[in-house]
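FORM 12-B: Structure-to-Sequence Request
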């Protein structure tokens, strides 16, 4: 099949199509990870986006559902330099083409992904049309003329029902804004008793579950699109240890009176350097976000900046001065990416342990 990527600035990339035969419109972003395409594609944070992979060969080790971060693909398309139809890995269950086809996701390969990445870096993220159907330039232009709204992607990806994952350790309520499976896995490894709740669960409902700590997950889109979550979190942080990751970090900052902004092209990949100010140590981190916390907005909010990005000095972590509340912009659970910063889950456990001990006195 013919494959076409049409950008809102009029640039056309001609290649070949794979995956589902169809057409999608979305926000074009790039990811710099060299491995982990299964985890990337199934990360709910990519809802509404079309992913351009900078690494040239995708699909060489196939697809295994054990690597998935959710049950489906929420991204609207995948753009790669080349695909592998004959994967070599004993865990492989299907090809990348099979995966996209079964999940109704459009793919294009055989295009200059380096050129696409440089264009995004120069101009910022932009809307695009991805298609592997025979469409004219005029038809592609018409598709991009339709009014664009981000939509409530968190509502789309969040769990619809409360569910419980039993454990013998601390009781954690995980607010699901689009939680990756490896966040839950990191809590399970620490024997946590986990209750996962929808993004719009009220403070009263959360408290009925009697948690010892509350975790705010990653997720897609603009943190300002979920004001109902902010209202609940404003109350949660006053009574329970709270740990936020990625979108959860941004929502926490908003709940504490800070502000967020849309970045030019965001951070997406498994090789982003972050400096931990309190440890005086640098880490390589996994990231996937298009918004960031505005540093000036939290300077008078009893918050300490704990982590900064080594590439652009953006805020990568915050901690409250007096409450057991903290968050990071990156993904300490990795997947794909390094697990150097998984110690943050241990910090969360320590906060909960201290809170339980204080209550016992």
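FORM 12-B RESPONSE
SEQUENCE OUT:
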């Amino acid at each position: 099949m013919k494959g076409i990527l049409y950008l809102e600035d009029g640039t056309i990339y001609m290649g070949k199509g794979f995956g589902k035969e169809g057409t999608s419109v979305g926000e074009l972003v790039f990811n710099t990870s060299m491995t982990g395409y299964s985890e990337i594609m199934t990360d709910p944070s990519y809802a509404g986006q079309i992913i351009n992979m900078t690494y040239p060969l995708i699909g060489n080790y196939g697809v295994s559902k054990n690597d998935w971060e959710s049950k489906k693909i929420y991204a609207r398309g995948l753009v790669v330099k080349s695909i592998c139809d004959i994967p070599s890995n004993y865990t492989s269950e299907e090809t990348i083409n099979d995966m996209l086809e079964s999940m109704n996701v459009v793919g294009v390969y055989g295009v200059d992904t380096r050129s696409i990445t440089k264009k995004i870096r120069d101009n910022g993220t932009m809307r695009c049309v991805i298609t592997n159907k025979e469409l004219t330039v005029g038809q592609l232009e018409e598709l991009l003329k339709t009014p664009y709204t981000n939509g409530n992607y968190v509502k789309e990806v969040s769990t619809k029902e409360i569910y419980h994952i039993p454990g013998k350790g601390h009781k954690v309520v995980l607010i699901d804004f689009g939680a990756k499976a490896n966040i839950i896995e990191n809590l399970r490894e620490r024997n946590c008793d986990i209750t996962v709740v929808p993004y719009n669960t009220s403070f009263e409902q959360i408290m009925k579950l009697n948690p010892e700590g509350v975790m705010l997950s990653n997720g897609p889109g603009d943190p300002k699109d979920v004001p109902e979550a902010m209202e609940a979190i404003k109350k949660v942080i006053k009574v329970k240890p709270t740990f936020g990751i990625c979108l959860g970090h941004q929502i926490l900052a908003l709940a504490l009176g800070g502000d967020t902004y849309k970045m030019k092209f965001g951070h997406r990949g498994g090789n982003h350097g972050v400096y931990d100010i309190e440890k005086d140590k640098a880490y390589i981190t996994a990231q996937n976000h298009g918004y960031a916390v505005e540093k000036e907005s939290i300077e008078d909010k009893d918050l300490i900046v704990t982590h900064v990005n080594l590439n652009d000095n953006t805020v990568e972590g915050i901690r409250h001065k007096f409450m057991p509340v903290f968050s990071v912009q990156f993904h300490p659970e990795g997947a794909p990416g390094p697990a150097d910063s998984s110690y943050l889950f241990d910090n969360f456990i320590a906060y909960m342990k201290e809170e339980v001990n204080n209550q016992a006195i």
